[in-house]
Design a protein that fits this description.
alpha/beta
Length: about 120
């Protein structure tokens, strides 16, 4: 049997992080969690998850900076990332989303947990 796909949830809002983690685990995925940007970057580079759900407004390091640092890493430049935020992404981030097919932006205010889980499952097939 294939190893479980590992997902990193980088989200400082505990309720959202817990709900996402529970639903992903119910779908048979392994989940690791980070509540701030620096921890998210450290965990991503140490654990090499199959995909990352990345909030932008987080303590210690903004998600945009996490994304930029990931893109400087050989592994990180290829990992699928869902930017899940209600932060209005700027021109620089829009360009990253357009140029890298493995980076997707989803607005927290326009999507529910099931849609996020479906997108993650699609990205880690």
């Amino acid at each position: 049997m294939a190893d479980k796909k590992k997902i990193l949830i980088a989200e400082d809002e505990e309720g959202i992080r817990i709900a996402l983690a529970e639903e992903l685990r119910n779908q048979g995925l392994e989940v690791i969690e980070a509540e701030d940007g620096q921890k998210a970057l450290d965990m991503a580079l140490a654990n090499h998850p199959d995909s990352i759900i990345l909030d932008f407004i987080m303590p210690k390091m903004h998600g945009k900076d996490v994304l930029k640092k990931l893109l400087m890493d050989d592994w990180g430049s290829a990992v699928p990332v869902i930017i899940l935020t209600n932060y209005t992404i700027d021109v620089e981030v829009k360009k990253m989303v357009e140029e890298k097919e493995q980076i997707v932006h989803l607005d927290k205010t326009e999507i529910d947990i099931k849609q996020v889980v479906d997108k993650i499952k699609e990205m880690v097939k």
